[in-house]
């Protein structure tokens, strides 16, 4: 399912003294099957934009077109659209309400009027897709689960609708780093299992950069950039910093190294990608021994790797380089 937005503008409380333009003249196109990361500070308009994608709110100006279905300020009948575009809202676990995990995940399919058999099949598949064992958890109350597990149940409930487009609004918000990694891993797997267009929002760049094919960067309601993560980092690293968004730590390091004449690639996203460059430069006699760098976690990792390589120099080959797997 493709998504096109043309001059999309959304104004809260329009005409009131305190009206607020949350989305400001945004145009873009997302192709079917794409994996898109929507990045921006709190208040930049991500959630407002996301709510347009399944017609939950309608544009104040402009229009959005989903697989040829146009939503503008006066569109009617969005039921069909909502079946095809599934949204996992921020802190979706607060919307769990059934007595058991099974009933909660099966709620949407049941409302579609599907057979018991089909509902059960979908619940099992969805639970498996989010890494929850069916037999172990089906009879649990969602409220007895951990925060991360609740969120998985909420995601499974949307997956059970078999949407063609899956939207996740800050799916890792409020989770610890371990829980965050698990959710990102899960999303990556969903993409492999189901044939879906995925859009997820986050205010953390580091996580998203390795995951998605396309980044959309929002700032104060405007869409400032839309491109592959690599191109964005290569062409707009400066601007990203200016609007206060972090860039991947590896890229930060690469920029500092280049500033000091150590030539490493400037669009790096994983350590593996600049490791060879650094090793090559080291051989030329340039050292990576600056106190300032020690503050960067990835730099420590690089140093560890380099030390490993020093003890076993001949083993520097391609196998060791790309462990992190970009766009795996
Ligand atoms: P994000 O998801 O990027 O944090 P939002 O879309 O939630 O951004 O908010 C964009 C802007 O719109 C913010 O300035 C926010 O305060 C404002 N806003 C969001 N929801 C409402 C609302 N229901 N009424 C009025 N203003 C709102
Ligand atoms: Mg939001």
Briefly characterize the structure.
With 328 residues, the protein is α/β, with parallel strands linked by helices. It is 41% helix and 19% strand.
Descriptive notes:
Helix content is 41%, strand content 19%. The C terminus is likely disordered. The protein starts with a strand and ends in a 7-residue tail after the last helix. It is built from 13 helices and 10 strands. By secondary structure, it is of the alpha/beta class.
Number of domain modules? 2
The number of E-state strands comes to 10
The CATH topology of the largest domain comes to: Rossmann fold
Quick one: overall form? globular
So, the CATH homologous superfamily of the largest domain? P-loop containing nucleotide triphosphate hydrolases
Q: Cofactors and ligands present?
A: adenosine-5'-diphosphate, magnesium ion
Q: Look at the helices and sheets and give the structural class.
A: alpha/beta
């Amino acid at each position: 399912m493709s998504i096109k937005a043309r001059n999309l503008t959304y104004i809260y409380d329009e005409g009131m003294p305190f009206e607020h333009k949350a989305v400001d003249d945004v145009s873009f196109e997302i192709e079917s099957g794409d994996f898109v990361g929507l990045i921006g500070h709190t208040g930049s308009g991500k959630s407002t934009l996301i709510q347009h994608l399944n017609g939950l709110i309608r544009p104040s100006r402009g229009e959005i077109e989903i697989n040829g279905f146009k939503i503008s300020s006066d569109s009617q009948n969005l039921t069909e659209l909502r079946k095809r575009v599934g949204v996992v809202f921020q802190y979706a676990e607060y919307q769990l309400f059934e007595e058991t995990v099974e009933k909660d995940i099966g709620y949407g399919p049941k409302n579609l009027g599907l057979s018991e058999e089909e509902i059960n099949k979908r619940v099992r598949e969805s639970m498996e897709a989010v890494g929850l064992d069916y037999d172990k958890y089906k009879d649990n109350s969602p409220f007895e689960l951990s925060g991360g597990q609740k969120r998985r149940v909420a995601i499974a409930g949307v997956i059970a609708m078999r949407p063609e487009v899956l939207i996740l609004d800050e799916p890792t918000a409020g989770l610890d780093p371990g829980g965050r990694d698990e959710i990102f891993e899960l999303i990556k797997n969903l993409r492999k299992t189901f044939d879906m267009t995925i859009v997820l929002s986050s205010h953390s760049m580091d996580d998203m950069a390795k995951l998605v094919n396309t980044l959309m960067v929002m700032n104060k309601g405007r869409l400032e950039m839309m491109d592959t993560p690599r191109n964005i980092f290569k062409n707009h690293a400066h601007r990203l910093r200016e609007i206060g968004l972090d860039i991947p730590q590896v890229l930060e390091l690469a920029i500092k190294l280049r500033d000091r004449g150590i030539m490493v690639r400037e669009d790096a996203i994983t350590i593996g990608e600049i490791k060879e460059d650094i090793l090559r430069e080291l051989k030329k006699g340039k050292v990576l021994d600056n106190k300032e760098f020690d503050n960067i976690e990835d730099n420590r990792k690089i140093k560890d790797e380099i030390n490993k390589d020093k003890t076993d120099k001949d083993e520097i080959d391609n196998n060791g380089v790309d462990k992190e797997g970009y766009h795996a």
